[in-house]
Specification:
By secondary structure, this protein is of the alpha/beta class. The chain has two domains: about 5-215, P-loop containing nucleotide triphosphate hydrolases (Rossmann fold); about 225-290, Alpha-Beta Plaits. It is built from nine helices and 14 strands. The chain has helices spanning about 45-50, 95-105, 110-120, 135-150, 165-180, 215-225, 235-245, 270-275, 290-305; strands at about 5-15, 20-30, 35, 60-65, 65-70, 80, 155, 185-190, 200-205, 210-215, 225-230, 250-255, 260, 285-290. The strands form three sheets. Strands 6-7-8-3-9-10 form a six-stranded mixed β-sheet, sandwiched between helices. It has a four-stranded antiparallel β-sheet with strand order 2-1-4-5, covered by helices on one side. A hairpin with a 2-residue loop joins strand 12 and strand 13. Helix 2 (about 95-105) crosses helix 3 (about 110-120) and helix 4 packs parallel to helix 5 (about 165-180). The radius of gyration is 24 Å and the shape is elongated. It binds adenosine-5'-diphosphate and magnesium ion. Adenosine-5'-diphosphate binds near residues 18, 20, 41, 45 and 46.
Length: about 300
């Protein structure tokens, strides 16, 4: 049984008549890196703020560590949060910023932990420089260090990659992977699916406050992998021909009349010729590949049409 860390049931937030998050049902398990993907205004920040205890849900339920959130505030302490801009003081150093936060959190003897955190986020040599001289990437890493104060079990990161240069993106990704290896469960948002493509274990696509899809990283990669899409009526007759005559083993039957062939080196011409030789008629056959971004756009457009 996976260990459920956060469970949302029908979680909803309305700001006046504007429904920012609607009927969200989502479980987050220990050790996952969940990528929350949605365009600007989709409801990502609102969702994260509810999980962080910064915004009160209008309706629905939120359970942490298998307990209802009404039990008290104690689980919010087990959560590290970087939502919107980290509240950093520009005229103080990285170390001093963390020290001030530690005092505010009631952790007066945190010096050793702060030094360790600065090392974790790669700021050990910049610990005494003033934050106003930091690049955006450095500020984000310091923000993550701040979120890690108090050794949380869950880290909530709202668009931590937004606006970073390529080097900064690489660093944040590496940091997130490291933290996850050390056992942290991470919920991270982005408006660009591609940004999280190499780190999340599960993606949650949201559009206009509603969940459009939950998909594992493996399934997503498979969907965006190059494939030959073969449509025909006589699937049952075609499969043995694919396997025995064409030696195709990497394929998937998508529905009653569609087969996806992922096999490397498979040729459209060869497949059609062989099927026809065996008296199997083909409705259509073509190569299909979409980028992660195309996939994301297609999913949100479909969702948009359902709303219209
Ligand atoms: N404090 C607020 N008051 C009123 N509307 C809000 C507030 N915060 C967010 N919204 C609205 O809720 C929707 C979702 O916003 P948000 O959660 O910030 O989305 P995202 O982070 O995905 O860009 C948007 O339409 C936004 O305008
Ligand atoms: Mg946001």
């Amino acid at each position: 049984m996976p260990d459920t860390i956060i469970e949302m049931k029908n979680l909803t937030k309305a700001y006046g008549s504007k429904i920012a998050v609607k009927n969200m049902d989502l479980s987050i398990y220990r050790g996952e890196i969940v990528g929350l993907i949605g365009k600007n205004g989709a409801g990502k920040s609102t969702l994260l703020k509810m999980v962080a205890g910064l915004v009160h849900p209008t309706s629905g339920e939120l359970h942490f560590f298998n307990r209802a959130s009404a039990d008290g505030q104690s689980f919010f302490e087990r959560m590290g949060v970087l939502i919107e801009q980290a509240g950093l003081y520009p005229h103080y150093s990285a170390f001093e910023n963390l020290k001030l936060l530690a005092i505010a959190y009631g952790l007066p003897d945190a010096n050793a932990q702060i030094a360790r955190l600065l090392k974790t986020v790669g700021l050990e040599s910049s610990g005494s420089a003033k934050v106003k001289s930091f690049s955006l990437g450095m500020k984000q890493r310091l923000g993550i260090a701040a979120a890690l104060l108090g050794s949380p079990d869950v880290l909530l990161l709202d668009e931590p990659i937004n606006g970073l240069d390529p080097q900064g993106i690489v660093e944040i990704r590496a940091l997130i992977r490291e933290l996850n290896k050390d056992g942290l469960t991470i919920l991270i948002s982005s408006h660009i699916l591609e940004e999280l493509s190499k780190i999340a274990t599960k993606y949650v696509i949201i559009h206009q406050g509603e969940m459009v899809e939950v998909i594992s990283a493996d399934d997503l990669l498979h969907k965006c992998e190059e494939r030959i899409e073969l449509r025909l009526e006589a699937i049952e007759a075609a499969i043995p021909v694919l396997e025995r005559e064409l030696k195709i083993t990497d394929y998937k039957v998508s529905d009653n009349n569609t087969v996806y062939v992922y096999e490397k080196g498979a040729q459209i011409r060869q497949i059609s010729k062989t099927l026809i030789e065996h008296g199997i008629e083909i409705d259509s056959i073509h190569k299909h590949q979409q980028s992660l971004e195309q996939y994301f756009l297609a999913r949100t457009e479909q969702a948009g049409e359902r709303h219209a």
